[in-house]
Amino acid sequence: MAIHPRFRPHPIVLALLALHGPIHAQTATEQVTISSRPLPAPASVAGFGDSPLARSPFQAVTLGHSALADSGAGSLADITRLDASIADAYNAPGYWSALTVRGFVLDNRFNYRRDGLPINAETAISLDNKERIEVLKGTSGAQAGTSSPGGLANFVVKRPRGMDQTQVLVGWTERGSVKAAADIERRLGDGDVARLRLNAAVESLDPLIHDTRGERQLLAAAARARLGPGTLDAEFEWSHQSQPSVPGFSLLGNRLPSAAEIDPRINLNNQGWSLPVVFDGTTASLRWTQPLQAGWQFVAHAMGQQLRTDDRIAFPFGCSAEEIYDRYCSDGSVDLYDFRSEGERRQTTAGALTLNGRVQLAGLANELSTGLSWSHYRARLGRQAFNWAGVGQIDGSVQVEAQPDLTDENTNRSERSTELHLRDVISLTSDTRLWLGARHAQLARDSVRTDGSLATRYDQGFTTPWLALSHQWNATTLLYASWGQGVESDVAPNRSRYTNAGEPLPTLKSEQSELGLKIDEPGWAASLTAFDIRRPIAVDSGPCDDDGTCTRLIDGNARHRGIEASGDLRLGAVTLRASSQWLRARREGAANAADNGLTPPNVAERSARLMAIWQVAAVPGLSTQASLSAEGPRYVLPDNSLRLAGWASTGLAARYTTRALGHEWLLRLGVDNLFDQRAWKESPYQFGHAYLYPLAPRTWRASIQATL
Fold first, then answer.
1. Cis peptide before 698 (omega within 30 of 0)
2. What is the pTM assigned to this prediction?
3. 119 and which of 114, 299, 525, 677 could share a cystine (Cβ 3.0–4.6 Å)?
4. Is residue 518 within 8 Å of residue 471, measured between CB atoms?
């Protein structure tokens, strides 16, 4: 494969390749056989140990590194093509990823985990050193102190596997992005007491969207040592990404433009003074696992994350010429703002002490887990610019003058959380189990503007329970019912227009009920789930245009009821995998009766994912894959006056494994949006503004991987 002329091998990759030393043909190779369906692996994010998903009373999806690579996933946002319950939530190319699960947006500050500990996801997260991504669906009060009720996303880091192996990869994505990566594992010292695994990647970014050239790098190391009966895991990750971000399109006056009339390759952030968004991150963790007597285990785990961000964009927002500020002008013009918030620093430290094991109580078998966890989050920002720079056009043809003066204050935040948890799985009979979970959290939060004004501080404590009853109908069929709570915390802004400025609201307790059926037969598997989630809504009440005219209060609920179905079927050389979701999301109990029954913007009523994999018997090592992603209509505006049509997109991919020159080779080729469909993929309503993001145009990708 020819190397792109703008791409040169990075010192990180060269250093790792130098560590490889002599090539050994007898080293273990990657398993590439496609099984009838994924193994029923556990989802560690749920907190119930090694219980396989097929026998657990909750819904989750685990996406392994190989599956992510086969699908061409390069960021967290790309997993939306793999499960129908996971959708986009203002996924701007070049920016951090945001997900919606069961119609609720996951909060990038509170709904993300790394090996089970909380992290801040307001950054670009590399997948090169991640073994898998787990997504728990539904309320997560038993797993997290505060979080939105959609679920949790957990990144599981690649760690030593017990084999000396080197894998190198070179990949290309249209139009000119080129990537090189290495994954190296080695034994340290004599015996097999300690091992080290290194991952590195460097990528020159040049996607089909105009004016988005950038770069990214990753260097990660994970070590494991056996010290007597215990195991010490240590890991470190450094990442860097620099790339201009892509703002969305919008309504043109009162008109919803057709996606066919908009070039999806246009980037409205194309001013001569536009600067890239820069994400730098460093994360490190230590984990000690100590087996105890009678099968008990103690785990001590600590982690630190430091992020630095330069957030810059020529931001299109509203139309002052027509005095409308939630959309663009009817003639295709739009106000452009020079936004800059440089040197943002976010720091998270977290730890957990966990004890788990089995015990007989009152003649019943109990699988217990209890522990203490804590986290400290700090965001330290500087002054920012958000200055009107001029009027642009949606075709990107107009240049305006930069306005970089730092004219506005930012907000610094701190949060401390201490949590106690208890989980128990009680075997009532050989087939029936009662699952119990509870978490008590003590929370302290404060914020202050960067000039020292508008300070707020509050403390809260709350307990969130979860329980489920599961029954193994037969060896392959599980029935279950569950109920649980989750919590979010909100405070009235400390500004003069609020009558309750700086006062915390009552904890926003969401509730979820769920009924499920899981079947896990040797040749096929299926799942059917019904869920009902209620979440309190905090709103501003009053005209809110003068001092003392606005009150932040709880006004009704968002109620999301839905049905999820998934299946996996092997028919000879063909494997079919499918998932679908039907969702009814509505506002209930609002003081203004006209608001009741409204659907939140950017929530599709229906969604489906379908994948067919064919192992070609005539060509050993070759498999082909066809995929379909489809989503139904969704509303653009909160008043439901405009609605987007549904869309569908098709992809094709192939992977071929062979042995040549004494090594294993894996070639991947794929194309996304095969028929180059034009449609609006999502309609996020953010910052009081309606945005539209198109389907990405047809995009080809290819890679070659060698196991040495």
1. no
2. 0.92
3. 114
4. no
